Amino acid sequence: MSALHAVLDLIEFDQLSGDAAIRRWTEKSDPDPTLARWAAQAVRAIQEAEPKIAATRPDTPVLEPVSRSWGRQRLNAEDVYEEAVVGRRYEADGIRELRLLSTNSVAGAARERTDDAEIAFLVGVTAGARPILGGRWDHQRRFSLGRFTAPERIRVVEVGCADGSIDVRFDGSPAEALRLYEDEAAGPLAELLADDSYRPGYDCAKCLLVESCPGVPSVPGLLGVTGDTRRTWSVTSGREHQKCPDRYRFGEMFLPRERAAEDSDGTRRGRAVHSWIAQRHDRRPIQACRASDVPASSETWSAGWAGRDGIEARLGVQMIGDHALVCPLAGLAGDTVRTEHLVVAFDPVANAVIVAKTDLLYRDDHGWVLREIKTARSPETGDLLTKYPQLALAVLLSEAGVLAEEGAPLRVELEELTGSGPVLATLDVSSDAVLAAARRAVNRLAGPMFTMETSGPNPGKACADCGFVRWCPAARKTAA
């Protein structure tokens, strides 16, 4: 988004046309051609959205762009903490409008809406904000704030850069904005400020303290590669790079992608089954899944993805019912079960933060267990560690002592939900052969990204299920 904001600054503050702004930005920054193509399309979509936004406030059709960011300082107990909003800012005639740019559409049922609590935070801060003076924020110093001018009306509008769609998320008085902040945002924010626990995740690679962070175990040689540039690595990123290095690179640039192009019938069914089971595992108090914990109507449950014949939906319902036969949650306490949990480690040799998003992490009488839950029409008969590299990474994390308690290593399980029933396998993490196979599987997936043995596009077969075809010059040439 920083590239897009740079172009919009040229349009709004240097009075350039959209095309001229793209040319100026391209000349000064020499961007990736794919990023430039997307930025040009996004600018056109935003300009198409402008009259739609103006129509939602006919009393004040024109607002002026604001160059300074908005922020405020508040006293919390004895500490001063600072709040700021990020987006495009506009003002006129007592109206203060914040626009949030989304790479995708914000129209229709499939839109990616900003969380309601986040909207409450944004409107509250916008209502009481002052301009932040100076250049880039310095996290070591407090804001220097300009004069406060009380607004009369607060608006927050989402804009879809894919199609120029808009969604007015808030339009009201400052009093209403501040009340919404207190009702919806103040509580979660207070909990966040009071929580001094470590929350490792995908952003850890940006942290200067990650090498010494108590929340991120250091595992030298975990990936079996050497790296100079700090980066985040996961099985997903490794697979993306393996299919096509540019496909991985476009994802790192956060370009919008056509998810529908990437999904097969089996992928959609697997995602739906996984989501359904995860919701059952999140219940409190904890309870084991039952055979009756299936969608009441497979047609309603699968309406958005199953297609006409309903075979995938019926298979999915069967898999959810079969999971009850091997669900491990019976008798476990709430603090011993974590769904969609991130396990994070740092490999100083690879200079990489490794993130593993686990399907299910639970603790029984013998220690922590990481279980991967997969769906397939038939059980896997080949090399499980190659087929499911998540298992290989989990084995290496176990060997490194990650999540070990009182000498009990992390145990690794695979639950396959298949057309012929559930299959549960426990990997022997102490076996030298299993460890060697896990190292080979992880290194095979990670190696090319770090050594750049393969770089640039890989047009052809990889384009068939790629969500970036719209932007990729190589894919366009192939299609031609």
Give a topology summary.
Blueprint: H1 2-13, H2 18-29, H3 33-55, E1 64-65, E2 70-76, E3 79-85, E4 88-92, E5 95-102, H4 116-128, E6 130-131, E7 153-160, E8 166-172, H5 174-194, E9 231-233, H6 235-243, H7 245-252, H8 259-262, H9 265-281, H10 298-301, H11 311-323, E10 337-347, E11 352-364, E12 367-376, H12 384-387, H13 389-399, E13 411-418, E14 421-427, H14 432-451, H15 473-479
Parallel strand pairs: 5-7, 9-11, 12-13
Antiparallel strand pairs: 1-4, 2-3, 2-6, 4-5, 7-8, 10-11, 11-12, 13-14
Structural notes for this entry:
The chain is α+β, with helices and mostly antiparallel strands and 480 residues long. Helix content is 37%, strand content 20%. The chain has 15 helices and 14 strands. Strands 9, 10, 11, 12, 13 and 14 form a 6-stranded mixed sheet that branches. A hairpin with a 4-residue loop joins strand 10 (337-347) and strand 11. It is globular, with a radius of gyration of 25 Å. The relative contact order is 0.10.
In summary, what is this structure?
37% of the residues lie in helices and 20% in strands.
Features:
6-stranded mixed β-sheet; globular; 480 residues; 37% helix; alpha+beta
Span between N and C termini?
30 Å
The shape, in one word, is globular
Annotation, overall tally of beta strands? 14
Low-confidence stretches: none
Cα-based radius of gyration, to the nearest Å? 25 Å
Largest sheet features: 6 strands, mixed
Q: Which secondary-structure class do the elements indicate?
A: alpha+beta
Tally of contiguous helical segments: 15
> What is the share of helical residues?
25-40%
- Average pLDDT taken over every residue: 91
What is the multimeric organization of the chains shown?
single chain
Order of helices and strands: HHHEEEEEHEEEHEHHHHHHEEEHHEEHH
Portion of residues in beta strands equals 15-25%
